[in-house]
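Kindly inspect what follows.
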Amino acid sequence: MKMNDKGGEETTESGPSSTWAELTHECLINILSRLTLEQRWMGPMFVCKSWFLAGKDPFLNSVFDLETHFDSLTESPRWWIPEFERKIDSMLRSVIEWSGGSLTEIKTRHCSDRSLNFAAERCPNLEVLSIKSCPNVTDDSMCRLAFRCTKLRELDISYCYEISHESLAIIGRNCPNLKVLKRNLMNWLDPSQHVGIVPNEYLNACPQDGDSEADAIAKFMPKLKHLENRFSKLSAKGLASICEGCTELECLDLSGCSNVTSRDIANTTSNLKHLKKIVKPNFYIPRSVFHMDRYSHWRLYDERFQTDVFRI
C-alpha cells in the first residue's frame, strides 16, 4: 500500500491504490482458501508469481473436488472425448504434485489410469475417492491404489465399466476402513437418457457380473455402512451374500436392480439390525415401450414384482 507525504493512503482517480503482490504468503493462503478449486484456477493463480506460488501451497491442495462443478452442469458429449480426459488428468496430476502427499480427497469424473496411478504413488493419506464416469479407469490403477492408499473410507466408482469384481476384492482386503461404496451403473433398462451423450459402445459394455461383484463386497467389505448398487444385475443370491457379509449396513440403495423382487429384499435384509434406509427397485415404463410389445421383458418385470409402482 502506498502512502502520501502526510502519512495517509495514496489515492488515484480510480480510488485507493494497493500493491496486492506485496501481501504475505500467509495472507494469500488465507484469501485463496475461501475460494473453490475452480475459482482459484480461473484467475488468482494468473495474477503474479507470488499468487501462483501461493496457489500451489500444500494447504490449499489437500482436496481435489470437481464434482460440485460437474453436478452444476448438464452432462455433455464433450466430457467423453480424449481431449477432455487429458485436461482432467493434467489438473489432477498438478494438484497431486502440489499437495506434497497431503491429498485426502479426490472427487472428479473422466480421469484415467494415468492420473490415478500417479495418485497411488503420491497420496498415501487418500481417504475419499470419487471417480464417476471414467471409461479409461481400469483394474490396473485400482489395484495400485488399493495397495498404497490403505486409508480409504469412501469409494465411488459409479459408471466405471472397466473396473471389475477383482478390484473390489483387492480394495476390500487392503482398505479395512472402507465404510462407503457406490457402485452404480447407468440405466440399462431405459438407456434413452444417455443416447447422444455417452458413446454407444460404452453403454453396451455395461458389466454383467453383478453376483461376482456382490460376492467380493460380501467377503471383503464387512464394515460397509453405506452401499449404492443402482441398476446392478445382481440376483437374489448376490443380494443374500451382501446382507450376510455386510451386517453393519445402514443404507442400501437397490434402485433399478431388476433381478431382485420386493420379497427377495425383505427376506435377505431381515438380519440387518442397523439398516435405517433402503431404496427398493422402482421402475417407470415408458408408454411407447410398453405398447411396443405387451409380451416383452417389461411385462415380465411387472409379473415378477407384482407391485403397483408401475405407471403405464
The chain has 14 helices and ten strands. The chain has a mean pLDDT of 83. Residues 63-305 form a domain with the Leucine-rich repeat, LRR (right-handed beta-alpha superhelix) fold (CATH 3.80.10.10).
